[in-house]
Amino acid sequence: MIETWIILLAIAVGVAFIAEKIKQPYPTLLVLAGLIIGLLPIRILDDVKHYATSDTVFQTAIITIFLAALLGDATLKLPFGELRENKKPILWLSLGGTFLTFIFVATCSFFFLHLTLQESLIFGSVMAATDPISVLTIFKSMKLNKRLSIIVEGESLGNDGVAVVLFKIALVTTVLSTTGALHGFIEFLRVVLGGLLVGAIFGFAASRITSWIDQHLIEIGLSIVLFYSAYQLAEHFHFSGVISVGTAGLIFGNYGKRIGMSEQTLREMDSFWEAIAFLANALIFFMVGLEVARIGFEGKWGVVLGSIVIVVLSRIIAVFASLTFDKTIPFSWKSVIGWGGLKGSLSVALILSISPDFQGKDLLLAMTFTNVLFSLLVQGTTIKLLVNWLKIK
Predict the structure, then answer these.
(1) Which of 1, 3, 7 is nearest to 290 (CA)?
(2) Which are the contacts of 154, defined by CB distance < 8 A and separation ≥ 6?
(3) What is the mean pLDDT of residues 226-250?
(4) Do residues 315 and 338 touch, judged by C-beta distance below 8 A?
(5) Which of 26, 46, 65, 99 has its CA 20 to 30 A from that of 160?
(6) Primary place of residence (predicted)?
(7) What is the spatial distance between Cα 39 and Cα 326, in angstroms, rounded to a whole number?
């Protein structure tokens, strides 16, 4: 198992190095490399591919190991002041945009792709999430307008939590009724508020502890404990671990840094989590490529291709609809936010978490992985052209 992870990491880091040299976003190149290696009959890598693409390993690696680290790194560096200044568009996109995407995708999937009601709701919730890592890696390489980047990052982190909650509700929803809708709304509040509460308690506690410590190694260790314990405790009580880690990281990265971290600690902690996030991302996107290569698409191409059209259009419509009343966001920014709503590791992890006994899982897997692949390889590689065409600085 250790040898397998070393091989995976070595390949992923090598591909990321090549991406850097040819000035391409490394998530896109890693997914492509994983897809190619997964399709080619390379006997020496058979055991590695079999291990990396098993549902248990993939889900455990992303959900248990990588997700908390990636969310923690992203929120740790997110300035609360700038989030507060842009709270309106972020909230409109995180709540309104995510919910509208969910409704549009689920409705179109039910009527046009002829999925069952529950399959439609599950697919809608999975496609409502955007991947902050994919988007921000590409945005940073283009050095886009800072406010636009803050809005996109804030939305990506916010809609992850909302999408997870919608996914959990969709799993237990079989019929639409007033009672079912009320139950879903109560469950939504419970999961969100529970995640916020756990994250806030852990974030403030860790921040106070840092004021008693002046040793950067101990404080970095504390941040590791913070992110993983906040995630696991929230999930234990069936709250949102994503929202919990996001809240804890935001508090620790702003309040904790202000009251208890020296300049050396700030530099060392940022460097540590930047390195962890890079390695986690490299493995995730490479494994996504490997996973796509093993999925069977026989007899599913019509539904799969139709789902891509539905997801892309639903995202764009939801973005423009949710930002209708925000006159500070120009048309060009809305276009970039809509087209830049890339899918990533969270969508994959959610769909893999469905029970193997679920009748429509194979079709949902094919649809989800194809949409992730399309967003990274097509949207991810053309967004720079869109930015230049729209003349966004």
Answers:
(1) 7
(2) 78, 83, 86, 90, 94
(3) 90
(4) yes
(5) 26
(6) membrane
(7) 46
Please write the tens of the pLDDT for every residue from 243-277.
Answer: 899 899 999 999 998 888 888 988 899 899 988 88
Structure tokens at 180: 């079912």
Handedness of CA 115, 121, 126, 128 (dihedral sign): positive
How many domains does the chain fold into?
1
Q: In this structure, what token pair is assigned to residue 137?
A: 């890696």
Handedness of CA 271, 277, 280, 286 (dihedral sign): negative
Cβ atoms of residues 138 and 156 within 8 Å: no
HEC secondary structure over the chain: CHHHHHHHHHHHHHHHHHHHHCCCCHHHHHHHHHHHHHHCCCHHHHHHHHHHCCHHHHHHHHHHHHHHHHHHHHHHCCCHHHHHHCHHHHHHHHHHHHHHHHHHHHHHHHHHCCCCHHHHHHHHHHHHCCCHHHHHHHHHHHCCCHHHHHHHHHHHHHHHHHHHHHHHHHHCCCCCCHHHHHHHHHHHHHHHHHHHHHHHHHHHHHHHHHCCCCCHHHHHHHHHHHHHHHHHHHHHCCCCHHHHHHHHHHHHHHHHHHHHCCHHHHHHHHHHHHHHHHHHHHHHHHHHHHHHHCCCCCCCHHHHHHHHHHHHHHHHHHHHHHCCCCCCCCHHHHHHHHHCCCCCHHHHHHHHCCCCCCCCHHHHHHHHHHHHHHHHHHHHHHHHHHHHHHCCC
Structure tokens at 25: 């976003």
Tell me the CATH number at 108.
1.20.1530.20
CB within 8 A of 18, min separation 6: which ones?
A: 29
Look-up of token digits 């502890």: 209
Amino acid at 115: L
- The pTM (predicted TM-score) of the whole model is 0.83
Could you tell me the two tokens for 31?
A: 């997914």
